[in-house]
Amino acid sequence: MDDKGEVHYGDKIPPEYAQQGHTELNKQGVTVKTTEGAKTEEQLAGEERKQQAMADEKRRADEQVARDKVLLNTYASETDITQTRDRKLAMINGEITLHTSYSENLKKHLAGLANEAAAFENLGKPLPERLQKDIRESTAQDEKYTTFIKTKQNEQDAIKRQAEADIQRFRELKGATGAKP
Hints:
The chain has a domain at 75-174. It is built from 3 helices and 2 strands. It has helices spanning 41-74, 78-122, 129-174; strands at residues 22-25, 31-35. Helix 2 (78-122) runs antiparallel to helix 3 (129-174).
């Protein structure tokens, strides 16, 4: 069929229509072969997106299979998952407690430095460089402790979420949704 919609019959395809689709008929007029025309860039891009989506889905499925295998090989029961979670949380809680103690001690030290600085100000004297430096460094260290504590608290939250997801997936894999051993 040409660009005007007219059907042409022949034993050879004219060069100007070679990129278009065509149908080959036998002597009885029965279709024996259909050839698609050259694809447009839009069609090619669509196929590429479809292939990429299929590859991404396969990769995700493969990763899930690997995670499931690790989960089943690592834990014999939900209790194992819970105990592992609790151990990890206890270790992090110890770090948080230690750094909270450091921070509290540092805040006491900073309060003493503030009193010392106030005494200099009351006397109308400039703060000694040593005192200024100690205040800056102590304040910076306290900010590091605060950031560390927040990071560890976020880590605890992530461990809790992961453990809950692991328990749920473990139940699904064991076929015992809702049941605890």
